[in-house]
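User: Teach me something about this protein's shape.
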Amino acid sequence: MSKRWVRSIEWPTLLLGLIIYAAWLALTWHAGSLPPALLFLLGGWVVAWHGSLQHEAVHGHPFGSSTLTAAFAGVPLGLLLPFSLYRRSHLAHHGVRELTDPRTDPESFYVDAAAWTRATSLGRAWLVAESTLLGRMALGPFRALARLALGELARARREPSAVIRVWLVHVLTTIPLLYWIVVVCDMSLGAYLLCFVYPGLSLTLLRSFIEHRAEGEGGERSVIVEAEAPLGWLFLHNNLHALHHAEPALPWYALPARYRERERELLSSNGGYLFHGYREVAWRFLLRPKDAPLHPGSLPVSHPEGAE
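Assistant: First, the predicted structure itself:
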C-alpha cells in the first residue's frame, strides 16, 4: 500500500463507517434480548446513519476509488434500494436546473398538475398528509417504495438488461445480510423490516422533509437547519443543505467549520431559509402542511369545453 494512496483515504469517514457496521452487527446479534421499542429506535438510527454514509459515498468519500467506495458504503442495510440507483438519482438531483420540479428532479416530493388531476380524493388526502412532518415520516416510506417500484418497472420497458443487472447485483449482495439476520441472529425478516428498515427510512425523511422548497430561485430553494447533536451527527451535517449544494464535494466533518465561515453569505443567497433545529421544524409542521403538494411551477391541466 503506497503512502500516497493511504493519504488519499478520508480516515474520519472510514472510521465512521466501521463504527456503523459494528453497531449494526451488535444490534442484530442482540436483537432478541432488546425491548422492541428500543430496537425500533436503535435499529432505525443505525440504518439512517448508514444512509448518511451512503450519501457521503455518492460524493466520493472516503476513497479515491469509486469502486472501493461503492463496495464500502454500498452494503444494503436498508435492503430495498440498490446503491447504484441511489447514486444515479442523487447525482441527477444535483444536476437539475430547477430543484423540486417533479418533472426533472428525481428527489422531489411535489407532484405536477397531471399527477394531481389523476389522483383520487384519497390520493390527494395522502399527498396533503405527507406535507406534514408526521405524515412524511409515517407514510413517506410506503410512497418511496411505491415510487421506486413504479420507476423501475417503467425503466425495465426501456432498458431491461440494465435493470436486471442492477437488481441481480443487489439481490446477490443482500443474500449474505439476510443469512446473518434470519439464520445467524434468528430474527424474522418482518421484524427487521419493522425495526430497522421502516424507522431508518422514516428518520431519513425527517431530514429531507424540509430540505427544499419550491419557492424562489436557485439557492433560495435549499435550507439550512442548524441541528446540533444527535441529529446533526445522524445526518452527517447534511442538514446544512444549502452549503452541501454549494460545495457538494466537501466531506461531512468539514461542513460545520465551513458553515461558520460562510454563514452570512449562505443565508443571504438562500433567502434566509433557516431553521434553528428540528424541534422548530416539528413545532411548525408536525401536523400542519409546510406547503401544497402540487408544484407551483406546474400549469393546470386544461380540458376541452364541454368535457366532464
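Now, about its shape. The longest strand covers residues 224-225. Residues 14 and 193 are 27 Å apart (CA to CA). If you'd like, I can walk through any region in more detail.
User: That's plenty for now, thanks!
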